[in-house]
């Protein structure tokens, strides 16, 4: 993905930030310390002047000067969302943040920057407090001290994601702020820790295969956008990554037709989706080839699937359109709605839906093809599988409003109904036991609400 590297991208927050002192629990801004707002008794309230900076999201800030930056992230964003069908309401929320009237802030002009079309910037300490209030920080072992020590990185990651999603970094709404600093960035920090742990198991000079991280999450919950954001962060921090989806390994159109003929009357295998509709040998070949990209200059094309082919029945995309990745890869991000599902006793799945019995039998081969290659897991959990219907309906409505072809409400209901039996059968075991062969300490389970935001586990 094109874009400036971390050495070139500076957050406007960082224009005045030097570092965080762990002993005093203070940040230093241009040589002047100020305490954070955290509930720690050491931390006190303070008066700090708010900087005023340009609102253009296409600029990078270096040495307190604005440098116009041209990026292809806009095109990639549009391509990503058109492919994923994501409505991403958190991005579209343009409401303003409201600060209490009792705020002690005053305004100050930054003479090094243009003074036209200015906006206010929240203080670094308020963002620090916001980060520490997130539902994932304790779960991934991030203390306020660790956040403070790495605050410059958090600000940089936030700046990069704002560029990717075309957000005004200086005027984020609460939903936007939460999605970046309570969700995407904490997961990225966790992934970095997993990569470091993985690399530590090898000796200097060894070829270190990329870490494979599996993302198991129901359809429509935002996993594709999460992986999209993580992939961007890895690339902008000079860590080579590759993304694959279980969708990339669907049978060809010819293979799907054969599957339908072999299972007449089974609605769960009429179209792509459930276990049995994937080319498992092809997935093994692809994953093993990716894990061998350990040296500079090694390249391969990664398969992609065209869901629009054959009037929506789909087919494997033309290999000439597949994206190319180059080694040495540090991480492979593998996402899918049914990753980690385990086959269950036949009587259990038949009680959910008799048509699920053959799907359950097919699932027996999936561990060897997918799950055994996954070293660490992110499992995104939902309380009710019916959320999937609501999310899919939102996405289709958004597509129709944008003038694109989208399924009708009845078609959405029919589409989702082909996946619900598997959700009802396999999600309880996945949530209770974790994916097959996984190590509990290498599984990050994230509970999300109906708005796709992480919540504290109950």
TrEMBL record:
Gene3D superfamilies: P-loop containing nucleotide triphosphate hydrolases (3.40.50.300). It holds the Pfam family PRK. InterPro entries: P-loop_NTPase (IPR027417), PRK/URK (IPR006083). It comes from the Eukaryota. This is Phosphoribulokinase/uridine kinase domain-containing protein. Residues 212-337 form the Phosphoribulokinase/uridine kinase domain. Coiled coil: none annotated. The gene is A07p033070.1_BraROA. It comes from Brassica rapa subsp. trilocularis.
